[in-house]
Amino acid sequence: MSDSKLAGQFFDAAIGLLQRVRDEESASITAAGSAIADTVEAGGRLFAYGAGHSSLAAQDVVYRAGGLALMNLLTVPGTTGVDVMPATLGSALERVDGLASAVLDSSPATSGDVLVIISLSGRNALPVEMAQNARALGLTVIGVTSVAYAEQTRSRHVSGGFLRDHCDIVLDSKIAIGDAELTAPGIEAPFAPASTVVTSAIMQAMLAAAAEQLVARGIEPPLLRSANVDGGHDWNGRVMTEYRERIFYRH
């Protein structure tokens, strides 16, 4: 059997997007890494939020081998994944005004912390309101989004603004509107989304930049090791004990 032409095309598309992000967003990724390093050094806390499939990239940096132990998931009930029934409810909740402020007010996030908000379109009420309120509380907001949506679609937030309009630092994933890289004869809808691949790569690159900054300042990054390698469990126990006041997924 010959190799799949469409599978190869998807890899090519994903690689092309990753190269674009690497070349065009390097300064912003470095700036985001510096903001995270500043917060770690100052004793602050780190949070990541995403709705729907954007939550996958947020979850990917929380409590994982090779990741910063201080990264916490900020959750909005019903929007974090497709486990809510019906799944369409999650999309509906992203358009509800007031939900983000209620979640922030009841969260441990406070002035001086960093919040990374991931939203592909950046047009729904939830991520926009989350960014607005987080900045009002004194948090540094890093937005990971596709700027193309802000240039070619209309906002669903009452302000008329997009996520990118309410962030201290914006990382553009370069994903085209519709989030599908391939078309083919006989297939009516475009398919093969690459936003998860690219957004997850942006998140990991940002944290790598943060680790680089911390080391340059003489600070050992509080990283987790795999619990499936010898010594990993003990290592993680020490890190979590040392930083327990800034880690909320244990409580």
TrEMBL record:
SUPFAM superfamilies: SIS domain (SSF53697). Pfam families: SIS_2. InterPro entries: RpiR-like_SIS, SIS_dom, SIS_dom_sf, SIS_GmhA/DiaA_subfam. PROSITE patterns: SIS (PS51464). Residues 36-221 form the SIS domain. This is SIS domain-containing protein. It comes from Streptomyces stephensoniae.
